[in-house]
Amino acid sequence: MTNLLDWRSCYKCQTLFFDMLPEKGACPAGEGHKAFGFAYSFPSDATETPTQQSNWRQCGNCYALFFDGFPTKGTCPTGGGHRATGYLCTVRHDGSADAPTQQTNWRFCGNCYGMFFNGFPEKGRCPAGGGHQASGWVFVIDHWPDEPQDFMDWQELTAFDLVNSARRQNGAPDVSIDPGLVGTTRAHSQDLADHPGLKDRTWNGWPGHLGSDGSTPPDRILHAVGISGSENVYIGWSSGSAPLPAPQDAFTWWMGEPMHRANLLDRNHTRAGLGISYGPGTAPDGSPATYFYFTQDFVN
Known about the structure:
Blueprint: E1 2-10, E2 16-18, E3 35-44, E4 52-59, E5 65-67, E6 84-92, E7 102-109, E8 115-117, E9 134-143, H1 154-169, E10 176-177, H2 179-194, E11 202-203, E12 206-207, H3 217-225, E13 230-238, H4 247-256, H5 258-265, E14 271-282, E15 288-299
Parallel strand pairs: 10-14
Antiparallel strand pairs: 1-2, 1-3, 3-9, 4-5, 4-6, 7-8, 7-9, 11-12, 13-15, 14-15
Helix pairs in contact: 1-4, 2-3, 4-5
């Protein structure tokens, strides 16, 4: 039996989705999913029992977890029904959380067939329209203990770990994850993704740091955590069959540019946040491209 890891809740639609891939599927709220909260896991290919339901699958189009036990396949944000891929997942449904690392109140949406968290007054965003509609059993899912990294997704954590590894190799202490800085870096990366021409506007001679509202890195950081700080931004793109920009690409560019390297290795920095978003754009040759925006903020 395989224990499947790296399922996360999307804070935009409240659906459980698979977070290990560079792109994040399709969220009914627009673009890809964005992870927030616990990292969840559950057994695959386990035997169905009176308190465990099998036949939950990842949708290969939108990356959401959906129930594949009906002839119809619900509603996928990409159009039509979901497309089953990967392992069969088994989810417990006796409704009780027996340990601090278990969360209840996960439900089947009778409209889209996805698994969503029903613990908030608002019901996320359903690809069939409106909020999700809770139906059937109350599911319980195992998760990793609550940690600061729960505010970041897999790609963001990978980039953050690369930064701390470089700091240790150069005699600088690790920076800790600051949820407020994670929030503001995610917001700035999403701002760049939402406004494709914004990446070319400059602040102090550097592109990618100016917000669509005219905000600068000191403005955003001060608003997020109450003190000023500094910022690194990396913008990568891909078109056709070229590999998508990865955390290693951002890290390599930062380390290869003197001012960004000095910022990344500054021994006075103690806290940081890192946020990644992506969106459509145009490559230098005029072809359609996908742009990835990496933002990291630091404070002392």
